[in-house]
Amino acid sequence: MSRFDDLPGYAASLGPLIDAVNLGVHIASRPLSRELAERSGLQADLLVDLRFVLPVRPLTPAGLAAVYRYNPLRRAEIDVHLAQGTLAEDDAPEATPRTAPPAAPGAAPRTAPHTAPDAAPGAASGIAPGAAGTGALRATPVTRAFIASLYEVHAAVTGRLWAAQADRLPELAGVAGRLVEAGAATGGAAFAQVAPPYEPPGTPPGVLLFNRLAVLRYHRADAHAGAWGRAGLTAAQMISLPPGPVRERIEAGTNDRAARPYETLTTRDRQAFLLGLSALDLP
Known about the structure:
- The structure is a single chain.
- This protein is an all-alpha fold.
- 56% of the residues lie in helices and 2% in strands.
- It contains 11 helices and 2 strands, in the order ααααββααααααα.
- The longest helix has 34 residues, at 7-40.
- The protein is globular, with a radius of gyration of 18 Å.
């Protein structure tokens, strides 16, 4: 059997690679993103995290709890966005996600949807029992304008960062888009919140790929949460779980579930996707 046909093994190899490519763009974008946030006068970490979500769907309490399951949002952080006019809240009362204190304007995204929670520091619970209620959170015109400018930043950065692989980007973005579509059948709550991503007309292939990879990370994150949940663990317990048989079984279960979308690809597509992303990850 080709290594590209061992789907759990393929998922295990691709997960860290997708993380690395995604992180590389964030690091390269950080100076321009920080400058944009400072010029806008906004606390922008949540807007950067969910840039591909906010223009197309509201953020629900359950969705936010899943997206930030390892580093939950607090009501105070949401209130900052309400006050600065980057979120508007519906009236429906539901439980509120919790988190760490707000970051400074222009900060890097506040958390990442890593499936290895030891790479995603934070608290253990997604929604505080008895917390003050909140409804769905929606983007405002201020948010949409900021995200339009942020997409321009990411277009410039991916265009420069991946210039040597420019001919590959449309194909890679196309495969990533097919995987996002396929992921709908097996994704969990975080994936349901973020997929499909916001893709306005004229979005260049580098930005399409960047955001589609970000969405795919949440598919794996949901698979991982499902695996440690079935093992009877909480997020906090999973973060502190040492290497050993239990962790190995959880990782194997994660890879089995994360592999499902790759069933829709041919062997050739899987090979081209992994090798193409590997080329993007080169210094």
